[in-house]
Design brief:
The protein is α/β, with parallel strands linked by helices. Helix content is 29%, strand content 24%. It has three domains: 124 residues, Alpha-Beta Complex (Protein-Tyrosine Phosphatase, Chain A); 253 residues, FAD/NAD(P)-binding domain; 150 residues, FAD/NAD(P)-binding domain (3-Layer(bba) Sandwich), CATH 3.50.50. Strands 6, 7, 10, 11, 12, 13 and 24 form a seven-stranded mixed beta sheet that branches. A five-stranded mixed beta sheet has the order 1-2-5-3-4, with helices on both faces. Keywords: FAD, Flavoprotein, Oxidoreductase, Quinone, Transferase, Transit peptide.
Length: 556
């Protein structure tokens, strides 16, 4: 842990984890304050997990969350009250420590000279000059004072952001690019299904962010708070300002765990798990191995979500394991989906239905998970009937695999770049923003209708790279994205139904049918998923190699 002393009785740190609470207790901390909202990252434990362990050790735990870069004066006042009432020493934490330090700085405004606040924070490793400018400017951040300026600024260091930066450099070496992302680790999230199925170790899916960002690209290790597209600026955590010529936005999705009552209090215990969290995918495999009989429930929320096939993948791999262990007949499996069909592209449904019947899975369409009671091991769903009316249904479970509802990140939903539903508003073919010609967006937070998968980002990145360079006068023609997405459905260990499609659900296979027929379970497709796609991701897509991803060009 990177713990930094800030003031008498107060230290700040990056995100902490339940297994670090004993170390904090031994270091003498008597209270912790969480300043990070749940659901910001897929490697982030929920506050309820932290609080449960802390209280068991006699450490007070308090929750005062703030969005990145949007710490309010009121939150500064609330933080000051906690400092007065909570037993010391205190550790306040967020993603990086910046929000906690900002709350402290706001709490001290009017009590300490501003230069002293800046100096104290600087000694702890945090730049508060932007916050002080905000205080001196009556709560507003002056965007004219920029900390940095770059030709191209990319928001997000996930699959879409890294691939786009690499594709830009492959076309225009030496281009001035900055990636803004606060995370220390880059994850290969498509691998988490295989972690939950006992095929991969979780560590295989994680590389350091520093090693993943392309050489020559500037890394601004911060979170974005707000956009000022009319002034070509973004405001970062700590009220710092970065200006750009071209902006590319691809921050991924937010997992909305709190949309399901009681879930955050029981996730990771009582048989409740999710492959959508890095640290819980191994728990999925643990539960699957332990279950020898009873009720297993797998859920799917309303669209859009990351990889719409992932809820089924977890179910099929679990059922296959139970079949191999000879206990499948003793386990009742429910698939409870808010959708009205098993899969959105009809061509792949017959193959999937054969496995549904073989595993004895009970399909429940129109069922949306609304609450979970972990100690009682019950899950309640809102079920839509044939007449359109809804009613609650409560199901018992011994294993519950939950896929949470998903939304665009908070700073996207409230920005001028968002459409009425909160998604980045782009042209579905060019991926250029509909309101600002020097803004492009791709990946999960865009309002395009394609499947939200890494395969989609692989196809989108070259399109955006070309169109950005065209906007800068460095390329000709207009690249077009056709909505390609791919979902390797792991129907059993060793076989995959490889779904590939474009806008409108048009089947779009990458291979001839004699090699891989995506509508049938395939051993070769499994080898592609297990052996070929991970190195292709790390060494191909993220390095700017556009295998089967060269964009089609049209005249401007």
């Amino acid at each position: 842990m990177d713990i930094r002393h800030l003031a008498p009785g107060l230290s700040v740190s990056e995100q902490i984890f339940p297994n670090q609470l004993n170390e904090l207790k031994n270091a003498g901390f008597r209270a912790i304050i969480c300043n990070r909202p749940d659901g910001e990252g897929s490697d982030q434990p929920l506050f309820a997990e932290i609080k449960r362990v802390a209280q068991a050790m006699g450490i007070e735990a308090h929750y005062l969350p703030a969005e990145s870069g949007k710490v309010t004066d009121e939150q500064g006042v609330a933080f000051a009250k906690l400092l007065e009432t909570v037993p010391k020493p205190i550790l306040a934490y967020c993603r990086s420590g910046m929000r906690s330090t900002t709350m402290w700085a706001l709490s001290q405004a009017g009590h300490q000279p501003l230069p002293q606040i800046v100096d104290t924070a600087k000694k702890a490793g945090f730049d508060m000059k932007g916050v002080i400018r905000r205080i001196a400017n009556n709560g507003r951040t002056p965007v004219e004072v920029a900390e940095a300026e770059h030709a191209v600024v990319i928001i997000g260091g996930g699959a879409a952001g890294i691939a786009t930066a690499s594709s830009l450099l492959a076309r225009e070496p030496g281009l001035d690019i900055a990636i803004i992302d606060p995370a220390d680790v880059h994850y290969y999230q498509p691998g988490w299904t295989l972690v939950g199925g006992g095929v991969f170790e979780a560590s295989q899916t994680a590389h350091t962010m520093g090693a993943t960002i392309p050489r020559g690209v500037h890394w601004i290790k911060s979170a974005v708070a707000a956009f000022e597209p009319d002034r070509n600026a973004v405001i970062l955590d700590g009220c710092r300002v970065v200006r750009y010529e071209q902006l590319i936005v691809c921050p991924g999705l937010k997992l909305n765990w709190h949309a399901i009552e009681g879930l955050s209090d029981t996730l990771g215990r009582n048989g409740v798990t999710s492959n959508y969290l890095y640290h819980l995918a191994p728990y999925t495999w643990e539960l699957v191995r332990q279950l020898r009989g009873g009720q297993a429930v797998f859920t799917q929320p309303p669209m859009p979500i990351k990889c719409a096939g992932a809820p089924q993948k977890a179910m099929y791999l679990s059922a296959d394991h139970w079949r191999r262990e000879g206990v499948l007949g003793d386990i009742e499996i429910d698939f409870c989906s808010a959708a009205t069909v098993l899969f959105g592209v009809p061509d792949y449904v017959p193959a999937l239905m054969k496995y549904i019947h073989a595993y004895g899975i009970d399909l429940n369409f129109g069922d949306t998970l609304t609450s979970v009671n972990g100690p009682e091991r019950t899950a309640t769903f809102s079920c839509v009937g044939p007449d359109g009316s809804s009613h609650p249904v409560t199901r018992d479970f011994d294993l519950l695999h939950v896929v949470p509802p998903q939304v665009a990140p908070d700073f996207i939903r409230v920005s001028p770049l968002a459409d009425a539903a909160g998604w980045l508003d782009v042209d579905p073919a060019t991926l250029r923003h509909k309101g600002w010609a020097n803004v492009h967006a791709l990946g999960d937070a865009a309002n395009t209708s394609n499947a939200k998968t890494a395969a989609a980002a692989r196809k989108q990145a070259p399109v955006v790279a070309h169109n950005v360079l065209a906007a800068m006068g460095k390329a000709e023609g207009c690249a077009q994205y056709d909505g390609y997405g791919s979902c390797p459905l792991t129907v059993e260990r060793g076989k995959i139904v490889l779904a590939e499609f474009t806008y409108g659900g048009k089947v779009a296979p990458s291979f001839p049918s004699w090699l891989i027929d995506g509508t049938r379970p395939s051993r070769l497709a499994w080898l592609l998923k297990e052996r070929i796609l991970p190195p292709l991701y790390w060494k191909g897509m993220l390095k700017g190699h556009e295998w089967l991803a060269k964009p089609e060009l049209a005249d401007l």
